[in-house]
């Protein structure tokens, strides 16, 4: 017999509705859990007092020897770190588990095993505490992260999402109202940084390491292509740039090694090409939509050269740039607590199924008004 997931979920929702309505007269305290990849992030967000506490454990050392994230090791480490981090944020905020009014966890996209750890923990805690639980879209978390800053952006805005798995331009009219303007046809910008770092013998994650090496680079040594900027459109492609970089590395290597200055020059040429390409597409997206606000989010938005370039571009156009603080550009629990709180307050919550979706298009997200069962609009 077909399991009655959504209907069960709906019954559970009805049982919880009353308590949530009562609590919504007061503030709502949401525990946010992020375990989509190699960072365990936990935060407590109160819809009236804002962010109360957050904690992050990065698994970089666990994966360092492998040159990238090993999914099984990631899942096991989330199991070890998640509950201690939950206790840590509660202690930091001076709150008890019984004060929690709702739990938000990353339901995708991400590594299936890692997502399952966060989802199973969130649902177990939700049952024990009798509070609603909601699976949150990781990229929605990223794009709403600038809302945690003292001067949050107003809707509508154009968002550039640049992470290890995504390079997207999105028109955001409100929470859950996302129109995809442009996407990567191959590698994401963060992925291109990570792969280029390997060519230059740098460790994972490559983005910050390339940025540090590029500081010593000379800007007039190499000029790399700015892919897909010579034709109209808002899509991205970074795989050709990656090949161009590899060819440059090979051409300048002597017995398989590059001298230090050439490594730095290549790092700078690569970083400048990515930054210029992203800036050109962002300018186009602002022009095409007539929108005066630009948000950048995701790990690559921590890049200082990218932030400075977009700051200059928006200032020139009388537009405004909104950014999360660097620690909330990369994966974190605060963005999940914030995004989850907005949707939980609107009455959205999971049924009794744990959601874990390795692939989950942002455009499939329900609007805030939708009656939502298991993270999807009810049909
Ligand atoms: O958002 P994120 O933490 O995880 C994903 O959702 O993928 O992004 C991680 C990506 C990695 O590819 C990393 O190399 C890149 O963000 N990154 C950077 C910088 N910091 C992180 N790329 C360029 N410059 C940085 N400073
Ligand atoms: Zn991310």
List the helices and strands and how they pair.
Elements lengths: L4 H20 L4 E6 L4 E8 L3 E9 L1 H4 L7 H23 L8 E7 L3 H18 L3 E5 H7 L12 E6 L4 E8 L2 E7 L5 H11 L6 H9 L24 H13 L8 H30 L3 E5 L6 H13 L3 E4 L9 H13 L26 E2 L2 E2 L2
Parallel strand pairs: 1-4, 4-5, 6-9, 9-10
Antiparallel strand pairs: 1-2, 2-3, 6-7, 7-8, 11-12
The structure holds 5'-O-[(R)-(carboxyoxy)(hydroxy)phosphoryl]adenosine and zinc ion.
Outline the structure in words.
Helix 6 (189-199) crosses helix 7. The protein is α/β, with parallel strands linked by helices and 379 residues long. The radius of gyration is 21 Å and the shape is globular. 49% of the residues are buried. It has helices at 5-24, 60-63, 71-93, 112-129, 138-144, 189-199, 206-214, 239-251, 260-289, 304-316, 333-345; strands at 29-34, 39-46, 50-58, 102-108, 133-137, 157-162, 167-174, 177-183, 293-297, 320-323, 372-373, 376-377. The two termini are 21 Å apart. It is 42% helix and 18% strand. The strands form three sheets. Strands 3-2-1-4-5 form a five-stranded mixed β-sheet, sandwiched between helices. The protein contains eleven helices and twelve strands. Residues 1-16 have low confidence and may be disordered. 5'-O-[(R)-(carboxyoxy)(hydroxy)phosphoryl]adenosine is lined by residues 37, 163-165, 190, 193-194, 205-208, 211, 298-300, 302-303, 330-331.
Q: List low-pLDDT spans.
A: 1-16
Average pLDDT taken over every residue: 92
- Taken from the alpha-carbon principal axes, the silhouette is globular
Biggest sheet details? 5 strands, mixed
- Radius of gyration (CA) equals 21 Å
Oligomer: single chain
* Associated small molecules: 5'-O-[(R)-(carboxyoxy)(hydroxy)phosphoryl]adenosine, zinc ion
Q: How do the SSEs run, as a string of H and E?
A: HEEEHHEHEHEEEHHHHEHEHEE
Q: Quickly give the structural class.
A: alpha/beta
Distinct helical segment count: 11
- Number of DSSP strands? 12
Strand order within the widest beta sheet: 3-2-1-4-5
Strand % is 15-25%
Span between N and C termini? Answer: 21 Å
Helix content: 40-55%
């Amino acid at each position: 017999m077909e399991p009655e997931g959504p209907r069960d979920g709906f019954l559970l929702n009805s049982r919880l509705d009353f308590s949530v309505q009562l609590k919504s007269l007061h503030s709502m305290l949401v525990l946010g859990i992020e375990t989509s990849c190699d960072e365990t992030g936990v935060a407590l967000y109160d819809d009236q007092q804002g962010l109360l506490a957050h904690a992050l454990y990065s698994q970089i050392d666990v994966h360092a020897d492998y040159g990238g994230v090993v999914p099984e090791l990631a899942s096991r480490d989330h199991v070890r770190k998640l509950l201690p981090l939950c206790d840590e944020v509660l202690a930091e905020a001076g709150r008890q588990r019984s004060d929690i009014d709702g739990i938000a966890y990353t339901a995708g996209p991400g590594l299936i095993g890692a997502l399952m750890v966060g989802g199973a923990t969130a649902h177990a805690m939700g049952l024990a505490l009798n509070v609603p639980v909601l699976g949150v879209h990781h990229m929605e978390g990223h794009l709403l992260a600038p809302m945690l800053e003292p001067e949050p952006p107003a809707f509508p805005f154009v968002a550039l999402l640049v992470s290890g798995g995504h390079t997207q331009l999105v028109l955001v009219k409100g929470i859950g109202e996302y129109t995809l303007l442009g996407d990567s046809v191959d590698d994401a910008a963060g992925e291109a940084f990570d792969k280029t770092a390997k060519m230059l013998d740098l460790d994972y994650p490559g983005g910050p390491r390339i940025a540090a090496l590029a500081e010593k680079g000379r800007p007039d040594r190499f000029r790399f292509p700015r892919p897909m900027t010579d034709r109209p459109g808002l899509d991205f492609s970074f795989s050709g740039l990656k090949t161009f970089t590899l060819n440059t590395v090979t051409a300048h290597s002597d017995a398989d090694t590059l001298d230090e200055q050439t490594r730095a020059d290549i790092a700078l040429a690569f970083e400048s090409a990515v930054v210029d390409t992203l800036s050109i597409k962002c300018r186009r997206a602002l022009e095409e939509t007539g929108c005066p606000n630009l948000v950048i989010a995701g790990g690559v938005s921590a890049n200082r050269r990218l932030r400075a370039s977009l700051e200059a571009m928006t200032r020139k156009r009388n537009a405004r740039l909104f950014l999360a603080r660097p620690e909330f550009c990369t994966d974190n629990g605060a963005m999940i607590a914030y995004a989850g709180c907005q949707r939980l307050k609107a009455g959205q919550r999971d049924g009794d199924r744990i959601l874990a979706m390795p692939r989950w298009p942002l455009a499939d997200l329900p609007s805030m008004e939708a009656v939502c069962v298991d993270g999807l609009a009810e049909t």
